[in-house]
Specification:
Strands 1-2-5-4-3 form a five-stranded mixed sheet. The protein has four helices and five strands, in the order E-H-H-E-H-E-E-E-H. About 30% of the residues lie in helices and about 20% in strands.
């Protein structure tokens, strides 16, 4: 897992060996946030990039909570009444973008999950079930 918690690490990721589509999305989100926020971006957002080899425990430790549970009601992925806890999610084809707002003042985390069979099974299944966009309705942004 790669955690981008400082503006310097976010900028460094833009010139790293990350997938070009991931770099482009990070750059786009940074630019969008900077349009409306004049301070240090690390004050309002962090990026977490999941890698196929990451265990569920590694992911949970990295983000600070389980993305497989809705923190508002405690429902877990697989429960009949489960609704994901993210504010917004998008299928980008090769990866999924999950956006969580973590504080009342708007601090957010953007979790990027590759659409790869090596991603932890339940995390991949969650994204496939709740984010995957049917090809006839999907519009990538």
């Amino acid at each position: 897992m790669l955690s981008l918690r400082t503006t310097a690490s976010m900028r460094a990721a833009l010139t790293s060996d990350l997938d070009p589509a991931l770099r482009a999305l990070i750059a786009k989100r940074m630019e969008q946030l900077a349009r409306n926020y004049s301070g240090d971006l690390a004050e309002i957002v962090e990026f977490t990039i999941v890698e196929p080899s990451d265990s569920l425990a590694t992911l949970q430790a990295g983000v600070g909570f389980s993305i497989l549970h809705n923190v508002a009601d405690g429902a877990a992925f697989g429960d009949a009444n489960f609704v994901p806890g993210w504010e917004w999610a998008q299928d980008h084809g090769d990866f999924f973008e999950l956006v969580f707002i973590l504080t009342d003042d708007g601090f957010g985390m953007i979790v990027l999950v590759p659409d790869h069979p090596g991603v932890e099974f339940d995390v991949h299944a969650l994204c496939l079930e709740h984010v995957r966009c049917p090809p006839d309705r999907c519009r990538l942004e």
